[in-house]
Amino acid sequence: SLEPxxxxxxHLAKWRGYYAPNRPSHHKRILVTGGAGFxxxxxxxxxxxxGNEVIVVDSLFTGKKSNILRxxxxxxFEFVRHDVTLPYQAEVDQIYHLACPAxxxxxxxxxxxxxxxxxxxxxxxxxxxxxxxxxxxLASTSEVYGDPQVHPQSEEYWGNVNPCGLRSCYDExxxxxxxxxxxxxxxxxxxxxxxRIFNTYGPRMVENDxxxxxxxxxxxxxxxxxxxxxxxxxxxxxxxxxDLVDGMIRMMNSEHAGxxxxxxxxxFTVESLAHIVREMVNPNLEIxxxxxxxxxxxxxxxxxxxxxxxxxxxPKVRLRDGLSLMIExxxxxxxx
Length: 336
Ligand code: NAD
Ligand code: UDP
Description:
two-stranded parallel sheet, 10 helices, 16% strand, binds nicotinamide-adenine-dinucleotide, binds uridine-5'-diphosphate, UDP-glucuronate decarboxylase
């Protein structure tokens, strides 16, 4: 019909003329917010290698241009230094929304800004998705489960989150981001996807971001003692970045809104991670115990049944293999 169906965004986008007629249909214009960061830059590599046009919007708060250096002269690639708390306009088919500091050190640095990034930033990108009919994927987090009382965590679990704590700017920020995403879907018919990412590691992590894998690898390569916070019995599950990116792309191109857990279900205590890194880099290293961080979740492990069933996805890279790739890159990049 000549009139657009207001709840059919593909239809609306065509009607508004956002589809370039001379572009092959398999070739997409994709916006990646936070694309100069750790996960974002690996996602950008994959999307560019598949032949898409990619726009990265990033404030470079924690991201680096060097992460996307190899694409800067490519005509299909564009980098825009921009803060997502302010509106941004572009004609795109898909939006991967990752912009948000992810490590506790970074998101606590300016907690109010973290809330703004999650709330205003997500609203701005959903508004853009609505206007141009783009499919929108939110990079949410396992932190929406807080300090979980259900184990392992499946998507049905509503979480156990402190609204007033030091981590709340991030946890509650992402929870509102999820709410906004679902409301734009229900109220405006935007095609949305939510993935809840569990601890991810790999090359290009910021070496001093305070996260456990990057800390241990950097400390080990510098020959310093590994710092274990608390008793080290708390658990995490570590997903190698290429596995995660694969799951994110599958989710975007699926028919499912989610929320959907993406992570590696293999669970390790932080202490055992320290032992593995020590054994891989230098068996003589000391392990020192330090004070536990406040609000630190004691257990975390994803239930990925849904991702297995809906996307036929599961991680392939074993912890030791992923660690060895990361250690190699850290050695080279950081001259360690
Ligand atoms: P990162 O810090 O490397 O990347 C975040 C990127 O967002 C950076 O490039 C940063 O400069 C950019 N950014 C931050 N605030 C911005 C703003 N206001 N405007 C524009 N750009 C901004 O972190 P990451 O590990 O790559 O995480 C990417 C996404 O994945 C985040 O949304 C994070 O919450 C989510 N996530 C990551 C993990 C993990 O283990 N790494 C786990 C769960 C969720
Ligand atoms: N941790 C640690 N030593 C470090 C850094 C972190 O023992 O040098 C612990 C931290 O207390 C937490 C776990 O490792 O229990 C994971 O911390 P990280 O900051 O990587 O991620 P998150 O808490 O967000 O899962």
